[in-house]
């Protein structure tokens, strides 16, 4: 039986299930929240609220090391990070799912490794090709490809910053994609980012960014993400 760890971001997923019995404290500090188990066919899901039980943690405050480490300790060999993102590519519309194949890390000050020694892991392809293929075979419409720009947050980006990201080749922008992916690679866990577009990034559209509209788009995207996870449980 496969154990699949899922980091739940801005798109709320069903919370029915049993909270795991584990210590919140790890060698790397406290986790954001204890995950809960959900059985989907032959796949056991471990769903963890990345931002805490009350969504109280900003992206730069999340203890990514503790979260990834606990998922591995609980038996997860595959991890999916779910993320709400802004679209830099105007062809990506609000409500659509994106499965990026590359990322650029613009964050700073976040713990990037599980030790203080030199850890040269191969990060040429940040996401697992096999896991991405399984997600794309779910039957749920998903934009395959693109580049995830991970910014520091918690504020949204300026229009000039988005122009810069576009010049760098980024197609979507979020705040939680790193160091999650890098830490998973250190532990040799399969990892993919499944993103739901909740707004055009600053300057991409002439409309102002509406926070209520972002929340509503996030809630709609949760149903699509759950459909993907359900399909993975059936394979």
Highlighted features:
235 residues, alpha/beta, two-stranded antiparallel ribbon, 5 helices, 27% strand
Task: Describe the protein's architecture and organization.
The longest helix is centred in the last third of the chain and has 23 residues, at 211-233. The protein is of the alpha/beta class and 235 residues long. 24% of the residues lie in helices and 27% in strands. A hairpin with a 2-residue loop joins β3 (25-26) and β4. Strands 1, 2, 5, 6, 7, 8, 9, 10, 11, 12 and 13 form an 11-stranded mixed beta sheet that branches. A two-stranded antiparallel ribbon has the order 3-4. The termini are close together. The radius of gyration is 17 Å and the shape is globular.
DSSP strand count: 13
Q: pLDDT below 50 for ≥5 consecutive residues: which ranges? A: none
Oligomeric composition of the shown chains: single chain
Alpha carbon gap, first and last residue: 11 Å
Q: Give the H and E element order.
A: EEEEEEHEEEHEEHEHEH
Strand content: 25-35%
Reported for the largest beta sheet, the result is: 11 strands, mixed
The shape is globular
Helix content: 10-25%
Radius of gyration: 17 Å
Helix tally? Answer: 5
What structural class do the secondary elements suggest?
alpha/beta
The overall pLDDT average reads: 91
